[in-house]
């Protein structure tokens, strides 16, 4: 078996693609899925995750619900404008009912259990707000040695999408994001929206997914509201599959080209709240001018073979039946 993986998620259309990508990949040992508030409230994100796993025939994968709000401040709003009222363009009913009961343990408890039981290091892919992961690292320092990498979809090097400065996942809980990204306790890879936007897929790609079989058809059926939103955001007919890009890197390390940068997160309450502050200056200049406390270096996804990445995701999702 290849990559041992746990996904932490707030489905979300792109999250659904990302879960399916891992669930259908033969070279992935998908140990579990944990859920968090985000695109829609926790009850909906949890149900959506269960239903995507049922679509993929993965009743073996446990699901546990986690944080229903940020660590410190209330969550200002959901992403209904992109993902629809239920997180899946209002079409979650096209997915089968869950085949497995929700775990009695909460998300952090399941994470600890899975990590302690693992005989090799595990990759965690948080593709929603980082609340569960911050709680895990703060309360259970002993599991850090069991974590290979934390591959995070979030942040932006340039402008944001939820505000002018901030990307949605980081903006949803900046304090949690800062705890994870700047702590230096685990190896982090940040996959920012600058790169995920470049990996956007067009109508032809979506048509191939739709025609690939029952799973691809069901995933395609979840996209109308999401596609309408991205038609406006992109200026052409397509979608951005943000979270699937991060999970692709979690599955196949090196599919994204990364560079190491110091990162901080703006936790103030001004217009830049939730911004990821990525210091791309030359190291020599940083050494001469740095006036603040040290922050951890994080690997940041900066480039990829765009067509290769799109093909990798489509090939994995275009599976006739689940495992």
Can you put this structure into words, describing what you see?
The chain has one domain (3-317): Inosine-uridine Nucleoside N-ribohydrolase, Chain A (Alpha-Beta Complex). 39% of the residues lie in helices and 18% in strands. The chain is built from 14 helices and 11 strands. The strands form 2 sheets. It has a 9-stranded mixed β-sheet with strand order 3-2-1-4-5-6-11-9-10, with helices on both faces. Strands 7-8 form a two-stranded antiparallel ribbon. α1 (13-23) runs parallel beside α2 (42-55). The model has no long low-confidence stretch (mean pLDDT 93).
How are helices and strands ordered from N to C? EHEHEHHEHEHHEHEHHHEHEEHEH
Tell me how many strands there are. Answer: 11
Instruction: Describe the global form.
Output: globular
Oligomer: single chain
Q: What is the number of domains?
A: 1
Q: What is the architecture at the second tier of CATH?
A: Alpha-Beta Complex
- What value does the Rg take, in angstroms? 18 Å
For this structure, what is the CATH homologous superfamily?
A: Ribonucleoside hydrolase-like
Q: Briefly, what CATH class?
A: Alpha Beta
Helix percentage: 25-40%
GO molecular function, one term: purine nucleosidase activity
Pfam family, one: IU_nuc_hydro
Protein name: Pyrimidine-specific ribonucleoside hydrolase
Organism: Amycolatopsis marina
Concise synopsis of the structure shown:
This protein is of the alpha/beta class and 323 residues long. It has 14 helices and eleven strands. Helix 5 links the parallel strand 4 and strand 5.
Question: What distinguishing features does this structure have?
Answer:
11 strands; 18% strand; Inosine-uridine Nucleoside N-ribohydrolase, Chain A; globular; alpha/beta; 323 residues; Ribo_hydro-like; nine-stranded mixed β-sheet; glycosidase
């Amino acid at each position: 078996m290849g990559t041992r993986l746990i996904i932490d998620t707030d489905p979300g259309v792109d999250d659904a693609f990302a879960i399916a990508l891992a669930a259908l990949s033969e070279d992935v040992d998908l140990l579990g899925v944990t859920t968090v508030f985000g695109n829609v409230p926790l009850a909906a994100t949890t149900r959506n995750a269960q239903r995507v796993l049922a679509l993929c025939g993965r009743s073996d994968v446990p699901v546990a619900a986690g944080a229903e709000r940020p660590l410190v401040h209330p969550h200002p709003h959901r992403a209904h404008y992109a993902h629809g009222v239920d997180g899946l363009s209002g079409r979650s009913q096209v997915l089968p009912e869950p085949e497995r009961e929700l775990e009695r343990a909460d998300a952090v408890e399941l994470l600890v259990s899975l990590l302690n039981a693992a005989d090799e290091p595990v990759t965690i892919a948080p593709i929603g707000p980082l609340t569960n992961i911050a709680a895990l690292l703060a309360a259970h320092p002993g599991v850090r040695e069991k974590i290979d990498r934390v591959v995070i979809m979030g942040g932006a090097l340039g402008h944001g999408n939820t505000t002018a400065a901030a990307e949605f996942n980081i903006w949803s809980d900046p304090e949690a994001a800062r705890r994870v990204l700047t702590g230096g306790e685990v190896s982090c890879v940040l996959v920012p929206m600058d790169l995920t936007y470049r990996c956007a897929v067009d109508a032809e790609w979506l048509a191939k997914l739709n025609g690939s079989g029952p799973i691809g058809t069901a995933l395609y059926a979840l996209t109308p509201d999401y596609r309408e939103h991205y038609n406006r955001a992109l200026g052409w007919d397509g979608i951005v599959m943000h979270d699937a890009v991060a999970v692709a890197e979690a599955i196949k390390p090196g599919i994204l080209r990364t560079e190491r940068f110091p990162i901080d997160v703006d936790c103030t309450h001004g217009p830049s709240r939730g911004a990821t502050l990525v210091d791309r200056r030359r190291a020599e200049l940083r050494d001469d001018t740095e006036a603040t406390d040290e922050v951890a270096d994080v690997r940041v996804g900066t480039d990829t073979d765009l067509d290769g990445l799109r093909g990798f995701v489509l090939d994995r999702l275009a599976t006739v039946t689940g495992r």
